[in-house]
Design brief:
Layout: H1 8-35, H2 40-66, H3 75-81, H4 93-116, H5 120-145
Helix pairs in contact: 1-2, 1-3, 1-4, 2-5, 4-5
Length: 146
């Protein structure tokens, strides 16, 4: 278990943003899936991302608790924390791919902060998710181009 250190409040705040962004991405992914329901290949690509984003939320919430914080639990707090736009007026696969890519970059930056702060467990947890988000962004982008 990681002992909370001086950088823990910044890491907890970053992990809270991760949770908020994952919820927004989950919502955007679901809206996109509803629109692509007749397009089996794209719907099949999007469907497993729900479970993956749930995993990201669980990992971030667990690390927040270990570090002595409280994960965001209200929609208002999640909306205020999210850096990914929740706008879904005209969702498109390219925009969704960009949101996944940006979230991967944000996780990578937070992982670097955690590593520099000596929180290796959080850093490794986050770095482990960066590649999965980048892969999702790539696959969604490829699907958008097809």
């Amino acid at each position: 278990m990681t002992t909370p250190g001086p950088a823990s409040p910044a890491i907890v705040a970053g992990l809270s943003r991760v949770i908020a962004d994952a919820y927004v991405l989950r919502f955007k992914t679901e809206v996109m899936m509803w629109q692509k329901i007749g397009c089996l290949g794209q719907a099949a690509l999007l469907r497993p991302l729900h479970a993956y984003l749930d995993e990201v939320i669980l990992l971030a919430a667990t690390r927040i608790r270990v570090l002595g914080g409280s994960p965001p639990v209200t929609l208002g707090r999640i909306e205020r924390l999210a850096s990914v736009s929740g706008q879904t007026d005209q969702p498109d696969l390219a925009g969704l791919a960009t949101a996944y890519s940006q979230t991967a970059q944000d996780l990578s930056s937070l992982a670097t902060i955690a590593r520099v702060s000596g929180d290796e467990v959080t850093a490794l947890t986050l770095y482990g998710q960066v590649g999965r988000l980048e892969e999702a962004a790539f696959r969604i982008d490829q699907s958008a181009s097809a």
